[in-house]
């Protein structure tokens, strides 16, 4: 039984790439993540995003964990920070001074044909998705399906642990941004900047 295994052994094995150990960590601490997220009354989508970000952060910092027994505290703190970041992002607004010269310049500019831009973006996205592997494309399309698929549904359909969906999504999006189609849409400078922080 996975809960009988010492957390130090799980962390060490997961850091070496043992998928079963990683799944054990996710199974053991997923209830903790959900209990912290619930306190912030996030939407289901935001709660899932926060959860996936926590597991992504753990993947990124797994080899830096000096005291595995402190992992629950680390997970709680990271979950709280990500939940607060999600709340801040949802509330973020851009105040505009309607009398400012900057706003007047924006008003006086000729309107951009939004329809043309939308078609160009959609085509670049389709082309970029076609440049990915079938597995990468399927994951990204499931994540943006309408109605949205839950992480549980995606896990079941792809045979992928729930805790792996976020890190895999981040890698797929990075590859998508690096495709020639997306580079052409945004220009190489913009696409490289948008890939920072992955």
What does this structure look like?
This protein is mostly helical. It has ten helices and no strands. It starts with 6 loop residues before the first helix and ends with a helix.
What are the defining features of this structure?
single chain, 198 residues, mainly alpha, Rna Polymerase Sigma Factor, Chain: A, Arc Repressor Mutant, subunit A, 2 domains, 10 helices, globular, disordered C terminus
**What is the count of distinct domains?**
2
- Number of contiguous helices: 10
Task: Fill in the CATH topology of the largest domain.
Answer: Arc Repressor Mutant, subunit A
Structural class: mainly alpha
Shape from CA axes?
Answer: globular
Biggest beta sheet attributes:
none
Instruction: Report how far the terminal alpha carbons are from each other.
Output: 34 Å
Give the name of the CATH architecture of the largest domain: Orthogonal Bundle
The mean pLDDT is 79
The radius of gyration is: 20 Å
Q: Which class of the largest domain in CATH terms?
A: Mainly Alpha
Q: CATH superfamily membership of the largest domain, which one?
A: Winged helix-like DNA-binding domain superfamily/Winged helix DNA-binding domain
Topology, number of strands: 0
Helix content: over 70%
Q: Output the helix-strand order.
A: HHHHHHHHHH
Poorly predicted sequence stretches spanning 5 or more consecutive residues: 102-112, 188-198
Proportion in β-strands: under 5%
């Amino acid at each position: 039984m996975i809960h009988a295994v010492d957390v130090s052994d799980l962390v060490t094995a997961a850091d070496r790439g043992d998928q079963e150990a990683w799944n054990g960590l996710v199974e053991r601490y997923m209830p903790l993540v959900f209990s912290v997220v619930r306190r912030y009354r996030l939407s289901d989508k935001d709660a899932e995003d926060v959860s996936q970000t926590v597991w992504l952060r753990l993947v990124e910092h797994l080899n830096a964990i000096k005291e595995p027994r402190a992992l629950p505290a680390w997970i709680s703190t990271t979950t709280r920070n990500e939940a607060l970041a999600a709340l801040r992002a949802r509330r973020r607004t851009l105040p505009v001074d309607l009398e400012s010269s900057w706003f007047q310049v924006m008003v006086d500019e000729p309107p951009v044909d939004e329809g043309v831009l939308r078609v160009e973006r959609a085509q670049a996205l389709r082309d970029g998705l076609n440049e990915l592997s079938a597995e990468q494309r399927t994951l990204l399309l499931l994540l943006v399906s309408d109605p949205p698929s839950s992480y549980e549904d995606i896990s079941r359909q792809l045979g992928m642990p729930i805790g792996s969906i976020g890190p895999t999504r981040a890698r797929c999006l990075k590859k998508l941004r690096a495709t020639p189609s997306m580079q052409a849409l945004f220009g190489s400078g913009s696409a490289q900047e948008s890939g920072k922080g992955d």
